[in-house]
Amino acid sequence: MPNCLWFLRMNTMNTLKCYTHLLVSIPPVVGIGDPMLQHGEILRSVLMEGNLQWLCYLSSTSVYGDCGGACVDEDYPTNPVNELAKLRLAAEQGWLNLAHDIGIAAHIFRLGGIYGPGRSAVDTIIKQGPLSESQKLRVTRQFTSRVHVADIYQALKASIHMPSSRRVYNVVDDDPAPRKEVFAYALDLVEKKWPALIKDFTSPPWEADSFIQKATSRGEKQVSNARMKKELAVKLLHPSYKSGLQSIIEQM
Ligand SMILES: NC(=O)c1ccc[n+]([C@@H]2O[C@H](COP(=O)([O-])OP(=O)(O)OC[C@H]3O[C@@H](n4cnc5c(N)ncnc54)[C@H](OP(=O)(O)O)[C@@H]3O)[C@@H](O)[C@H]2O)c1
User: Fold this and answer.
1) Tell me: the pLDDT tens digits for 170-199?
2) Do residues 221 and 146 lie in contact, with contact meaning Cβ atoms separated by under 8 Å?
3) For the CA atoms of the chain, what is the radius of gyration?
4) Domain boundaries, the chain
5) Residue 27 CA to ligand 1 centre (angstroms)
6) pTM above 0.90?
7) Cα–Cα–Cα angle for 59, 63, 66, nearest 5°?
8) Residue 192 · residue 42 · CB < 8 Å
């Protein structure tokens, strides 16, 4: 069985030789780290013989940690606080090193909270389910960086078409609004579109007090997207959650 697994893994790795562009969207795993970099040596030797020209690793703004409300650009010191964020930073470095070894530049995109059709405040309200643990932790934040999935696509496309020697880009929108504000806006959109849909919102899940203590211990930051706009010339389709949520509800 181990031989069979090894063969499968090698087969998968070997297919990478054919590709010119590699986008890594796999998050790190606690206790393991980056699942692909686990096989770093095989990966390196395979990619050395291949045609890779562009590599991008999707990371997270969590690598900055608690910044006391500061404006955070890509030169701001990283200070990840939890294990996942530490593994994330290690994964960034791992991909940068690997790309350097094979003679290409890797790009690290530090994403804010991703939202889009099927995964947004509008969807959460319509489902009327409880918030996930990570959503609860963000409830009382003054600033929450987010980005619409269409704008991640824009940034990726720009990075492919305008090769740059820069390594790290924050990919967030212009409006790091508090989650409560975003939900209030989403609720308004839903009520206007389907007046009878929401029956009981006297105590919406994102206003529950039970997790506030936990939430306030998390770090605040305002993440800057100036480098992405200046160097990749990205014009955000959704600079604020408002247009992003409107486009989502219009498509429903
Ligand atoms: N969602 C956010 O708000 C947010 C914010 C900042 C950064 N990020 C990061 O941006 C990246 C993309 O985000 P996302 O929300 O699209 O993530 P996601 O929904 O968790 O998707 C991750 C992808 O990685 C694959 N994957 C996970 N473990 C794997 C493994 N061991 N081997 C192979 N494939 C594996 C998953 O495959 P399956 O579908 O087969 O499971 C899935 O396609 C992730 O690294 C995420 O952590 C996300």
Assistant:
1) 999 999 999 899 999 999 999 999 998 877
2) no
3) 20
4) 2-250
5) 5
6) yes
7) 145
8) no
Q: What percent of the chain has pLDDT over 90?
A: 72
Phi/psi at 70 (5° precision): -70, 160
Q: Which two tokens stand for residue 243?
A: 């247009």
| Sign for the pseudo-dihedral over CA of 170, 171, 174, 175 | negative
Query: Which portions of the chain are predicted below pLDDT 50?
Result: 209-217
Ligand 1 centroid distance, CA of 198 (Å): 31
Fold of 2-250: Rossmann fold (3.40.50)
The answer to whether 43 and 98 are in contact (CB under 8 A) is yes
Residue appearing with tokens 């932790």: 137
Q: Which atom of ligand 1 is nearest to the CA of 115?
A: 3
- Determine whether the shortest distance from the Cβ of 118 to ligand 1 is under 6 A: no
Query: Does an H or E element contain 146, and which?
Result: strand 146-148
Token pair recorded at residue 16: 């990478």
Ligand 1 binding pocket includes 24 (Cβ within 6 Å)? no
d(CA 210, CA 41): 47
Report which secondary-structure segment, H or E, holds 40: helix 40-48
The length of the chain in residues reads 252
